[in-house]
Amino acid sequence: MMSTNMTTETPPAPASALKNLGEVRAMIKRHKLNDYMFSLIGLLALTLALLTLLTLFTDLVMDGYQRFNMEFLTEFPSRRAAHAGLLSAWVGSALVMLVTFLVAVPMGVAAGLYLEEYAPKNWFSDLIEINVTNLAGVPSIVYGLLALGLFVYILDLGQSILTAGLTLGLLILPIVIVSTRESIRAIPIAIREAAYAVGATKWQVVYDHVLKYSYGGILTGVIIGMARALGETAPIITIGALTFIAFLPPTPVTDVAPFINFEWLSSGFTVLPIQMFNWLSRPDHAFHINAAATGAIIIVVTLLMNGTAIYLRYKIRKNIKW
Amino acid sequence: MIKPTTPIKAESRNLNFFYNGGNHALKSVSMPLYENKITALIGPSGCGKSTFLRCFNRMHDLYPGNKYQGEIVMHPDNTNILEQGVDPIEVRMRISMVFQKPNPFPKSIYENVAYGLRVRGENNKRMLDDKVEEALKGAALWNEAKDRLQDLAFNLSGGQQQRLCIARALATDPEIMLFDEPTSALDPIATANIEELMSELKQKLTILVVTHNMQQAARVSDYTAYMYLGELMEYDDTNTIFTRPSRKETEDYITGKFG
């Protein structure tokens, strides 16, 4: 509307200007072609990636759907495929994840906070920064070897839930550190200065503000790290997790004082991906069905964890605008 | 002319400041802040007025490599707040600051105002309630905020947010309040509110304000300092600065020939 008004009110433009306008429009059209091209390529790449995942998932579900019942979750592994279940595997995974969480979160958050808020910025902290980033790229089997040497042989922790939890904790530590630092960096300087300006100490600024405004991002990093740890197989095999377990670790909570015990930490265990790997390596096709069902469950749990991460970040960020 | 009997709240003496990397941002600045008066700092961008203001609450200490030389002495206790032995936190407990852009915490209105008191270890609910109310009244925000104290501060308008920041700075009963271009992000009505507020606040405390807006300096301040390239060019009562400045440079800046 504006443009039609403009043309009626302004005197007719000289012919040369109109000709130029035509050229300008043609040029804009040419340039806009790039927009379309790129969004097409991007969409194609996205579809391809999603389709692959979808195919994989559908395939697993199709193969394993017969085992989607409660029995599959409440039975121990068995020689008879149709009665074999995931009980020891999912309990093992849950307990290992608990240790992983308890190891990775305090250490990762403390390290990230220290690097970002307290450490002097010099060549040494640069060196540490580069190394932390590099650690995230170290193949997980290397962590397994480290854990075998350190936790199993030197510290004599055995092939236990504790060893597995510590190993996976170390594995996701860089993820937690990096996500902690990034969330902290997202807090504007103005907010820190506001807190310092009323007389807060560094720790008050960290505790009352930095941690409170960044925990959404930290939590996201933790959950994504945990989702990765859940699927890790190589380091767990390296430290010698058992593959056929027909018992549960001692329960962490008891009915006699002091109501918690730590025996479960030194218990043998198996985890979901190892159980899957074990079934997959059997010649009997019936076990492959179990493996497919396990695979589908791992994917669903992983997606749920990532979904939770996204939801939490959204929910926490909603109250923070900068 | 400034009456020699006017009581002084604080004064900088031969203050030099060097940013990390050696930029000599303040050159031997000596000037007083008179008690219960508003002193305005004017000058072109980069002249060091914000740098000078931020010396008063040791904000520069937050970043490594910055260096002060000279003194800022507070009266009546004659403390040199730039001295090594004086903790910047102690200084910030006595001198509060309002920033250029409203910077409320992503917390409730109540918690924003109460934060300075919480930092001082005050947790008594009654005491906090009273102080919050008093500060919000002092910042002319009480009527708008009293029914929504638990609302997020971000839900306030820009002008209200800036008054909230003033309430936050006011709640701790500071002796001096620093304003770093407090209205540059606000519309004219909100600006007028803040200016009126500053005139009321000076009954209770001493104000140092940096402003880009010369009309603002003329409207609100009692004394005006013109700075240029890190030096204090001229300092006098506002009326004199704006009507009969003694230096040609000041006159050029004020009349818009320069800057």
The N- and C-terminal alpha carbons of chain B lie at a distance of: 25 Å
| Proportion of strand residues of chain A | under 5%
Spatial strand arrangement across the major sheet of chain B: 6-7-8-3-9-10
What is the 3D form of chain A?
globular
Shape of chain B: globular
What's the count of strands of chain B? 10
Helix tally of chain B equals: 10
**Main β sheet profile of chain B:** 6 strands, mixed
CATH topology of one domain in chain B: Rossmann fold
The domain count of chain A comes to: 2
Q: What is the residue-mean pLDDT of chain A, rounded to a whole number?
A: 84
- The CATH homologous superfamily of the largest domain in chain A: MetI-like
Classify the secondary structure makeup of chain A into a structural class.
mainly alpha
Would you mind describing this structure in some detail?
The complex is a heterodimer of chains A (322) and B (259). By secondary structure, chain A is mainly alpha-helical. Chain A has 12 helices and no strands. Chain A has helices at 2-9, 15-64, 70-74, 87-118, 123-135, 140-154, 161-185, 189-197, 202-231, 234-238, 272-280, 285-317. In chain A, helix 8 packs antiparallel against helix 9 (202-231). With 259 residues, chain B is an alpha/beta fold. Chain B has a domain at 8-104 and 177-254: Rossmann fold (3-Layer(aba) Sandwich), CATH 3.40.50.300. Helices cover 35% and strands 25% of the residues of chain B. Chain B has helices spanning 49-55, 88-94, 109-119, 125-138, 142-145, 158-170, 188-201, 214-220, 238-243, 248-254; strands spanning 8-18, 24-34, 38-42, 67-74, 79-80, 95-98, 176-180, 206-210, 223-228, 231-237. The longest helix of chain B is centred in the middle third of the chain and has 14 residues, at 125-138. Chain A binds chain B through residues 120-121, 188, 190-201, 204, 208-209, 213, 319-322, and chain B through 57, 59, 62, 64, 89-90, 92-93, 96-97, 99, 101, 103-106, 115-116, 118-120, 152, 154, 165, 168-169, 172.
